[in-house]
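Today's session is about reading a structure prediction critically. Students often jump straight to the picture, but the first step is always the sequence itself: look for stretches that repeat, for charged clusters, for runs of hydrophobic residues. Only then move on to the predicted structure, which in these notes is written as discrete structure tokens rather than atom positions. Here is the chain we will use throughout the hour.
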Amino acid sequence: MTVVVGYLPTPQGEAALEQAIVEAQRAKVKLVVVNSSKGDALVDDRLIDAREFHLLEERLTSAGLDFWIERSTQGHDAADEVLRVAQAQRAQLIVIGLRKRTTVGKFIMGSTAQRILMQAGCPVLSVKADGTW
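Below is the predicted structure for this chain, in token form.
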């Protein structure tokens, strides 16, 4: 069993990662970090670079976790990637960060968080970054 976290290098992603670390430590299970990019741009700030990858590895190692970092640049939807990994890993929990969006923003752009919440085959814990509301 595992805890899967959807991670972006944003305040919301950091909040999700912090909570996922706590949950994985509490349950003594593997943590799988999913960092996904749509691959629709030459430079995508959502995808961690080599330096950020190394820092993330160090952070998870120092937390004493068994972990895997899944980086996807295949052009897949982030929700699809989180759900795919959660199913493949038989996740017991998915952790995601939330950001405030307007109703129009959700209508035009869709909602990754909403899709994960509605389609996940396991519980989903959603967290927000401090001061984002």
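Discussion point for the tutorial: The domain at 2-128 is CATH 3.40.50.620 (Rossmann fold).
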